[in-house]
Amino acid sequence: MRIGTSGYSFEDWRGRFYPLRIAKGSMLDFYAREFDTVEINSTYYRTMHPRVSAAMAGKVPDGFAFFVKLHAGMTHERSAGDDEWRSFGEMLEPFRERGMLAGLLAQFPWSFKPAPGAMAYLGEVAERARELETPVAVEFRNAHWYEGGAMAEALGLGLAPVSVDLPDLPGLPPREAVAGGPFGYVRLHGRNADHWWGGGPLRYDYGYSREELAGWLTGVKKLLESSGKAFMFFNNCHGGQAVDSARIMKSLLEEGA
């Protein structure tokens, strides 16, 4: 079981996780001293030049695992064409060459609901991932994907499911471990119900209690039994709370080992 955070380069982590005066370019090196995996979420906004991904791969030890989030044009706008996918694939190569590319993350918006058109698009994403020879984990934010046979149909395309921890609000997915694919994948976004629909940084301003995280132990066991390996990423990054939560979860897993 690998545990990490959804991103690592945050100014408000200075003094909470990073030394106050750390250079921005040294953050990944520091992060990798404690964690062996990370989600790269900045690629949702902009595809990096391969030189940048090569530099990142050079900052972490062998065996480190990167998950790279698909660009907004591939999940939210669904407008990416051959050129965009080709550039994205070129960015991934330095990670792949060092054996550090664990997979891709496709996070779809709440407005993306089960329908023939949605399934067809998921099929396109799955095919693109096969062309990139990289597994892709898909995160749905709409509860309808967890009803009927929608999830099974999506996974039948060759996608891996993302299990999510979100506020207990109507329309959002349940907090449950969903097995399937080459690995288990869990993303914890916090349970800040008051600010969820408003968006912005306060959406992820939440600190998990030890009891809340212990509730995932059974689910983690299910994922490991299903695929043999699993990843858990904390996206409650506001104020460095993701690091605190990750440390608690690592402690819980060590106690139960």
- What oligomeric state do these chains adopt? single chain
Structural class: alpha/beta
Tell me which CATH architecture applies here: Alpha-Beta Barrel
Query: What would the principal axes of the Cα set say about the shape?
Result: globular
User: What's the number of helices?
Assistant: 9
SSE sequence, one letter per element? EHEHEHHEHEHEEEHHEH
Largest sheet: 9 strands, parallel
Query: What fraction, in percent, of the residue positions are helical?
Result: 25-40%
Distance between the termini: 11 Å
CATH class: Alpha Beta
Structure characterization notes:
The chain has 257 residues and is an alpha/beta fold. It has one domain (2-256): Protein of unknown function UPF0759 (TIM Barrel, Alpha-Beta Barrel), CATH 3.20.20. It has 9 helices and 9 strands. It has helices at 27-31, 50-57, 72-75, 82-97, 116-131, 150-155, 210-214, 217-227, 241-256; strands spanning 2-6, 37-40, 65-69, 101-107, 136-139, 160-161, 163-165, 184-188, 230-234. Strands 6-5-4-3-2-1-9-8-7 form a 9-stranded parallel sheet. Helix 2 packs parallel to helix 4. It starts with a strand and ends with a helix. The model has no long low-confidence stretch (mean pLDDT 97).
